[in-house]
Design brief:
Length: 52
């Protein structure tokens, strides 16, 4: 289930209230930002280090 779907479902069950943008902001403030690096990019980076 995507974050948006979870937010909409929670709002539909009156567990939370607010517009979607405000709910997204609440979620963004609640968790630290993490950078996603695809596995293929990590493998390519590791391979370059080994070959040096």
């Amino acid at each position: 289930m995507t974050r948006r779907t979870v937010l909409i479902a929670a709002r539909a069950h009156a567990a939370i209230s607010g517009e979607l943008e405000a709910l997204r902001h609440r979620v963004a403030k609640s968790f630290p930002l993490q950078r996603y690096v695809p596995r293929t990019a990590r493998l390519a980076s590791a391979t370059r280090k080994v070959l040096r």
